[in-house]
Design a protein that fits this description.
By secondary structure, the protein is α+β, with helices and mostly antiparallel strands. The protein folds into two domains: about 5-70, Winged helix-like DNA-binding domain superfamily/Winged helix DNA-binding domain (Arc Repressor Mutant, subunit A), CATH 1.10.10; about 80-245, Beta-Lactamase (2-Layer Sandwich). The chain has helices at about 1-15, 25-35, 40-50, 70-80, 80-95, 140-145, 150-160, 170-185, 230-249; strands spanning about 55, 65, 100-105, 110-115, 130-135, 190, 200-205, 210-220. The strands form two sheets. A six-stranded antiparallel sheet has the order 5-4-3-8-7-6. A hairpin with a 6-residue loop joins strand 1 and strand 2. Helix 1 (about 1-15) crosses helix 3 (about 40-50) and helix 5 (about 80-95) runs antiparallel to helix 9 (about 230-249). The chain is globular and about 55 Å long.
């Protein structure tokens, strides 16, 4: 039984390697990242590919996420009670500011897109529900992790920045300064950190006394600026969602 549980854990570790910026993996690189033997990782990836959770490129011998995960991801997103709570708030915010509004939640050392209200003519963010991003990338990450305990942030910094971002901060001094500014202002901004075409303004969301996520307004075709009017709407939406989530916690 212990061996079976370990195998399941290893398979989940392999799946967790895949991200928006590292969407293909070879056996050797995956084994090196996880500190496992190549034969063990090859068996795991081949098994996952056989069930449709990964897809192997026969030419390059690289793996990417497979179609079996699509249905599971949409099912998880649709059944998430927090998403149902967040959507009315996001829809009102998107209508007020004329930009897409999204709700992200913290998941360990990452954050995940949990709900989206798409603005007309913008990218369809709802199609990427469930996608996760590194803690140090984008306004959403800054709005959430600026309020985490300092020892946790120091440990995350010490673990390195394995997943690259376009222009995101990758050193302790910059991150500490950025987090201090977020706590003072109550919101975070970013330009092209995770996606070179996206600007964002994000505000933290609480569930009870803890920051568990954030609301963000996104600009793609036109940059979004942190004007007093937009920030006011954003902070009001974050407070409204925080109250709703705290009541159900």
């Amino acid at each position: 039984m212990a061996d079976e549980l370990l195998t399941v854990q290893r398979a989940l570790d392999v799946l967790s390697l895949f991200s928006a910026t590292e969407d293909t993996w070879g056996v050797s690189d995956a084994a090196r990242r996880l500190g496992l033997g190549t034969s063990q990782v090859h068996r795991i990836m081949a098994t996952l590919a056989g069930r449709g959770f990964l897809v192997a490129d026969k030419r390059t011998r690289m793996y990417r996420l497979g179609p079996a995960l699509i249905g599971l991801g949409h099912l998880a997103a649709e059944s998430d009670a927090n998403r149902q709570i967040a959507l009315p708030v996001l829809n009102r915010l998107a209508a007020l500011v004329g930009r897409s509004a999204v709700f992200n939640v913290r998941q360990g050392s990452r954050y995940v897109l949990a709900a989206a209200a798409d603005a007309p003519g913008d990218l369809r963010w709802e199609l990427t529900l469930g996608r996760s991003y590194p803690w140090y990338g984008g306004a959403a990450g800054h709005a959430i992790f600026a309020f985490r305990p300092q020892e946790e942030i120091d440990a995350l910094i010490a673990s390195g920045f394995d997943e690259s971002t376009e222009t995101g901060p990758h050193d302790a001094t910059t991150l500490h300064s950025l987090h201090t500014a977020v706590r003072e202002r109550g919101f975070a901004t970013s330009t092209g950190e995770v996606n070179p075409h996206v600007t964002s303004v994000a505000a933290p969301v609480r569930s009870g006394s803890e920051i568990t996520g954030c609301i963000a307004v996104l600009g793609v075709t036109h940059q979004v600026a942190a004007t007093p009017e937009l920030v006011g709407h954003l902070l009001a939406a974050a407070a409204e969602l925080s109250d709703a989530l705290s009541r159900t916690a």
